[in-house]
Amino acid sequence: MSTTDHHRRLPEDPKRKGSKSSSKDLWKLAAKKKDKDKPSSDSRTLLVMGNQEAGKSSLILRFLDRTNEAVKPTTALEYTFGRRSKGHDTTKDVVHIWELGGGTALKELLETPITVNSAKALSLMVVLDLSKPDELWYTLDTLLSAASNRLRKVLKDLEAKESKIPAYLKKKSWSKYGDDHPDKDFLQPLQVPTLIVGSKYDVYQEMEPARRKVVSRCLRFLAHMYGASLPEG
């Protein structure tokens, strides 16, 4: 795979360092199959957020095949992009990547990556530090709620322009549950693909079984409520 990228920074974020994590499925998350009723597959936006020092930057560097590059402290909001050739085709898959620093403190900055232009081909990833179980619920719920609120506003603006994108995204987000799901009244599925990733799994494995069970239930509940994907550990 040949990947090129470019990045720019927006100011300030607390000191942090990345952690190692697998990124083999990220292109699948960022890519989009062609369909006349769906957005173009050539360009996607990926928004990465989560705990401070959870390994977000490391994950992005692995995704972009820049593993020899030193991980630097993330500023408030960072942008980069990557390209991947599509076989013998002259076109390329392009993914625009935004990383939100500062944990939950800078959630107001989500209005920059979540826009009427990006919403139609947007994916979210939340990277959680499993070594800090007391922060997981608040971090995940706060960030997904903030993203949901921003998406709601953006999709309302698109509806005002008579775009078909909001209806398509809403239908798709609810399709996994079905019309008669018993939890329908409290579900709040995000209308874009969302992935929850846990880092520092080695620390999690060393926890007491009861504590691991609580963490697992917490993540599963919020993933279910927001319609997010949670890989099995």
Describe this entry's structure for a reader.
Helices cover 32% and strands 20% of the residues. The protein has 233 residues and is α/β, with parallel strands linked by helices. Strands 1-3-4-2-5-6 form a six-stranded mixed β-sheet, with helices on both faces. A hairpin with a 6-residue loop joins strand 3 and strand 4 (92-100). Helix 3 runs parallel beside helix 6 (209-226). The longest helix is centred in the middle third of the chain and has 28 residues, at 133-160. The relative contact order is 0.16. Residues 1-5, 8-22 and 32-41 have low confidence and may be disordered.
SSE arrangement:
Elements (H helix, E strand, L loop, with lengths): L4 E6 L15 H5 L12 E8 L5 H8 L13 E9 L6 E9 L21 E8 L3 H28 L4 H11 L18 E6 L1 H5 L3 H18 L7
Parallel strand pairs: 2-4, 2-5, 5-6
Antiparallel strand pairs: 1-3, 3-4
Q: Give the strand order, joined by hyphens, for the main sheet.
A: 1-3-4-2-5-6
Order of helices and strands: EHEHEEEHHEHH
Biggest sheet descriptor = 6 strands, mixed
Termini separation comes to 27 Å
Please report the total strand number as a whole number. Answer: 6
- Overall mean pLDDT stands at 84
- Shape, please? globular
How many helices? Answer: 6
Oligomeric organization of the protein chains = single chain
Helix content: 25-40%
Gyration radius (Cα, Å) is: 18 Å
Q: Flag low-confidence runs.
A: 1-5, 8-22, 32-41
Summarize the structure.
It contains 6 helices and 6 strands; from the N terminus they run βαβαβββααβαα. It has helices at residues 26-30, 56-63, 133-160, 165-175, 201-205, 209-226; strands at residues 5-10, 43-50, 77-85, 92-100, 122-129, 194-199.
